[in-house]
Design a protein that fits this description.
The chain is an alpha/beta fold. It has one domain: BirA Bifunctional Protein, domain 2. The chain has six helices and eleven strands. Strands 1, 2, 6, 7, 8, 9, 10 and 11 form an eight-stranded mixed beta sheet that branches. A three-stranded mixed beta sheet has the order 4-3-5. The longest helix is centred in the middle third of the chain and has 18 residues. The protein starts with a strand and ends in an 11-residue tail after the last helix.
Length: 224
């Protein structure tokens, strides 16, 4: 198997959530058949609220009609976790990785993804990003910097994390209780770095730390 591919789709502009979901499903199927290497997608979504099957409906603060009136898509997904928001100014990362023998520990995988975000934030000049004992994801104090929700199918991962980059994400998050954790703030790289951080430099930072931090998860055996 060749080295993993990290594919930035930012040049396409915001990709509707269902379209990205379909790309993931196709890549998962191909990865399960060992027809493609491990692949990481970096992209942006138009305004979208997604929620897992076990999500609490009360954490969505608007009616479906009100979301539609604001131009926010409302989509149930098959990932874990509660409710979250995706939108312009947020970098979304979808790793399609085969968890082979010795790597089949979902808790450890989630911790590794958090390490990627923490290291990338540090690269961009944001100190204090860390895990929190009350919820998966990455926080700075009581500010929620990155949401995380994953799914594994026949030991191939999909879904991933969403990292708040620009202040523009705040309006969308105001329509939900993010991941069902009430009373917490939303943090962004731009506010924490006290400058406007772009999606492209955030993608570059994620790419720079991903292969090093996640090295143990990349499958390089069984050449095609």
């Amino acid at each position: 198997m060749t080295d993993p591919r990290i594919v930035s789709l930012l040049s396409e502009g915001p990709i509707p959530y269902p379209d990205a979901w379909e790309r993931q499903r196709k890549l998962v199927a191909l990865r399960q058949q060992e027809k493609v290497p491990d692949t990481v997608l970096l992209l942006e979504h138009p305004p979208t609220v997604t929620y897992g099957k076990a999500s609490d409906p009360s954490h969505r603060l608007l009616t479906p009609e009100e979301y539609a009136a604001r131009g926010i898509a409302l989509i149930e997904t098959d990932r874990g976790g509660d409710v979250t928001y995706h939108g312009p100014g947020q970098l979304v990362c979808y790793p399609i990785l085969h968890l082979g023998e010795g790597r089949r520990d979902l808790h450890r995988y989630v911790r590794a993804l958090e390490s990627v975000i923490i290291a990338a934030a540090r690269t961009l000049g944001v100190a204090g990003a860390e895990r929190a004992p009350w919820h998966a994801g990455v926080w700075v104090g009581d500010g929620y910097l990155a949401a995380l929700g994953v799914k594994v199918s026949r030991w191939v991962t999909h879904h991933g994390f969403a990292l708040n980059v620009s202040e523009s994400v705040r309006d969308g998050f105001a329509t939900i209780i993010p991941c069902g954790v009430a009373g917490k703030k939303i943090a962004t790289l731009s506010s924490l770095a006290a400058r406007e951080v772009s999606l492209s430099e955030t993608a570059e930072a994620i790419t720079g730390v991903f292969t090093m931090t996640m090295d143990a998860y990349f499958e390089r055996s069984n050449p095609l």
